[in-house]
Known about the structure:
Low-confidence stretches: 342-348, 359-386, 417-449, 538-547
Number of helices: 19
Helix content: 55-70%
Structural class: alpha+beta
Order of helices and strands: HEEEEHEEHEEHEEHHHHHHHHHHHHHHH
Mean pLDDT: 71
Amino acid sequence: MSDHLDDLPTRTDEHVGEDETRKRFNGLVGDPYFIVRGETENDYGSDVTVEALDERGYPTNFRSHVQLKGSTTTPNKDGSYSYQVARTNLNYLLNSPASFYCFLARGPKKVFYRMAEEEYCDRERVGTGWRTQESLTIRFQDELDTTAIQRIRDQVLAVNRYLRNLNLALRVQAISLESEVVYDPENKVVQNITAARTLIREGGLRLVAEGERDVVAHCLALLSESQRNGAEWVVAAYLAYSTGNIFDAGTFADRALASDGLDTDKESLAKYITITTAFARGSIDREQLESSLRDLASAHPTSVSALYVRLDEARRRALSGDPDQLDEVRALVAEIEARDKGFAPVKIQASIVLLEARYFVLNARYISEVAGFKMTEALGMDALFAGERAQRAMELVAEMQSILNGFEDLYQRAIEMEATHPALIGEVISGLELCLIQNRMTMEKTSPQQPGDAEKLMGLTQQSIGRLDEAIAAFMKAGLPDAAARTEMLKVDALWIGGATEQAKQLARAIAAKAAALGLGELAARATDVVAGASPLNVWSAVPPLS
């Protein structure tokens, strides 16, 4: 027989990898969470189907499709793996809820996974450019273990139960499935585009502020972009803004300003978003930001946006040592609370402003008392007088500690909310920066030095870094890498105060690259200055790092 008949199809590395992945997958996924229902015949983007078992171990007919991949590729620097797939492959998996990719790193024989919906959401938060790409690079970093398998099972159950209940609710109410509908958890069902448009125009901002972002997103999905008016574009901008998607937020705000249907408050909100997102992208500097916001307040003096600009100015004056501004801050907070219609979660934000201002006033008095105490002690003046000053200083310390506890309470509440509002994030970070780290450490350094102070300060540094790591994790979970990067810069501050200047510089170098990639020009510049040797502290800069 001729040799040419032995010219046969080769078994590609991709096929070998998928076969190995299938074997490992079948060995991992099964009772008590799934039944593996078998392989698909036509591989358009799904290799295996699994059926979820409920909490009692009963079969549900709720199924998830799995795309299997395997490779001998080397890992990325952070230990994750990258694999390229067609964009249409992701779209195909998205048509079946809670479907996922399964990837075998053939070298270490580790199995990773990536939920299709999570891949989609992460890309949408960054922008829409991926929608026209031919291929996408999936990054695998979560290992497929028993905990992950249970998490996937729970997700399959939750989303399919939701869709089943929605479908049955529509059927019972005799709502045609050919109609475009939106699900409202409070009112159960809002039918047709007209109802969705009414909901958006009359309560869209309020719903976003109250955390009902899914309802607003569903309603907006019914309104084609060509049919939206200015008020609807403002809600779309605010929704994007509230999730940290500054690129879409700015684009939608610009479209709102170019459309009709805006009242004064909505117009000023659109301008506010346009200005602040331009600053976040590095298109304007801080001086231009402040000038633009002042112009906005002048053009719309009665708007909620103007009240926020005035509040920020009063806050700055209070922080510079003008205690009379506290009354102005309180008055503005009260007016905003009375008028706010979804522009921001005011109560937490306002509480931080007031605590921040009170702390600075008290801290100034405290330093004055300590200085007086040290002076009377040095000059050998009346011991009773020195003791009185020391007692007053200690009373101020107790009051400041209660304020710091208030900040920590607000910090925890913000983490519980996943800090999804950019304005709130800014205030939380400001509060952390001014009080939880720098001022607490400053208090330690300005008080009479005692044995063990250096060790105590280092302990405070490590405690602060631990709290900041929690904040960074929460911001990343909420899809807010810009907030995470800003919070990382606070770790630089803490390290610097604690005396770990070289470690602070190394972290600043990484932040500079990350901030530049995110378009955070001011943060990148600040981090670069630290790498060059400049102190990172922008508050209490006269306090040197502990030697």
